Amino acid sequence: MLSESSAAVVTATLPVVRAHADQITGRFYARMFTAHPELLNLFNRGNQATGRQQAALAASVVAYAGHLTGVDATGWTAILDRIAHKHASLGITAGQYPLVGRHLMAAIDEVLGAAVTPQVAAAWDEVYWLMACELVAREARLYTVSGLAGDGAVWSDWRVAGVTPEATDVVSFVLVPVDGGPVPNFVPGQYVSVAVDLDGGRGRQIRQYSLSGRPAADHWRITVKRVHGTGGAPDGLVSRFLHERVATGDILRLSPPFGEVSAVAGDGPLLLVSAGIGLTPAMSALEHLAATAPDRPVVLAHADRDAAAHAHRAELVALHAQLPRLQLRLWYEQSTAGDDTPPTVAQVSRGWIEPELIPLPPDAHVHLCGPLPFMNRVRGDLLRRGVPVERIGYEVFGPGMLPDGR
Ligand SMILES: Cc1cc2nc3c(=O)[nH]c(=O)nc-3n(C[C@H](O)[C@H](O)[C@H](O)COP(=O)(O)OP(=O)(O)OC[C@H]3O[C@@H](n4cnc5c(N)ncnc54)[C@H](O)[C@@H]3O)c2cc1C
Ligand code: HEM
């Protein structure tokens, strides 16, 4: 809870801070990276260049202030959980919060100038620390559950035991622990962070990849789509590196599994809806069900550019044989010669996904994964069709959440 005096100051200054939020976070990053260039290796350079991370951080601090002052009633548990899981997968430590807070407060001061009286500065410092405490507590719990000390040492070495082409620009990496130790279990829907040292002394970058294989196996699998730069933008740093530089026998540094969204929630009917590379959590869910609950009713509704771009197609046919109650519904934007999915296995339509045609079993739990506009459309339709909001989980393959933050 904000103190009464700070609540009044935050309510009065929220509009001006909100209006300058992007400028403030822009200055915050510039200051912080000048003082601590080593942090450039921790933050995602692609997000910095496109401003996506700026928007996420600015939006979350300002929205949290709105929540504390009662202006914004968004459910905060999901948002804080999401950030904490992401932070834990990056090895963020409690000791880094004062540094971030100091630079954020200095950036507010720099952008808003004389408007930042000592009283205003103290009130926003309080907002920052209330949010920081929530996150630090959650992250401490996550580290404990994963058997980690919370000192940032989240990385362990994994050997690439195999690289499998899955579709145009998509490969899977099968990974085993270098030390021969046990393979940590995970819940379908969880992801690992992968840290790579880029060539030419360009430093380190970290990205998250959903585990696409079965939990409780003797290996992990991730499936990576190569991101090509379009309109003059550079190619994706890490996906390109993984595609071009990583081969069987190489070592990758991975975090333990994190992620608050289960792709197998509940024990009744399940609806998995994905687009493009967003299929990876659903693949883990289906592999898991095939091994543990083959009779569970499950629908996979998947949209892709065409059959050639659709990763794991052959695997889906095999899973269909193991999951008698699996219904596969596919949408391909374009036709290709290679589309030989047997009609007995999947119903295939041409064009964009038609949310109203997605089979919806009664009382289903839903998991969505794909681009934000895709998920927004599909979720909107599912809500209209009566699915309660708390039954719809979703994963975003980047920073941010759906517009209503739920
Ligand atoms: C929880 C989670 C799970 C995920 N699971 C998967 C998964 O299973 N499989 C998968 O393939 N991906 C997954 N992702 C996405 C993955 O983490 C990466 O974001 C993705 O591989 C792209 O990373 P990159 O380093 O290749 O691209 P980046 O270097 O991060 O670039 C991203 C985009 O920014 C653009 N960009 C970069 N610099 C600039 C610039 N200067 N100007 C303009 N544009 C620029 C690039 O062109 C590109 O389009 C997941 C993400 C999350 C958060
Ligand atoms: C109250 C304090 C903080 C807030 C509100 C905050 C907020 C956020 C948010 C909203 C995201 C994006 C999550 C997502 O949707 O994926 C994020 C990611 C991240 N945060 Fe924080 N954060 C805080 C503190 C810190 C600290 C102390 C560090 C350590 C230096 C840190 C480092 C990162 C990194 C490296 C990422 C991922 C960046 C990326 O992918 O570009 N954060 N944070």
From TrEMBL:
The keyword Transport applies. Keywords: Dioxygenase, Heme, Iron, Metal-binding, NAD, Oxidoreductase, Oxygen transport, Transport. GO terms for molecular function: 2 iron, 2 sulfur cluster binding; FAD binding; heme binding; metal ion binding; nitric oxide dioxygenase NAD(P)H activity; oxygen binding; oxygen carrier activity. InterPro entries: FAD-bd_FR_type, FNR_nucleotide-bd, Globin, Globin-like_sf, Globin/Proto, OxRdtase_FAD/NAD-bd, Riboflavin_synthase-like_b-brl. The keyword Transcription does not apply. In the C-terminal section; belongs to the flavoprotein pyridine nucleotide cytochrome reductase family. This is nitric oxide dioxygenase. It comes from Micromonospora matsumotoense.
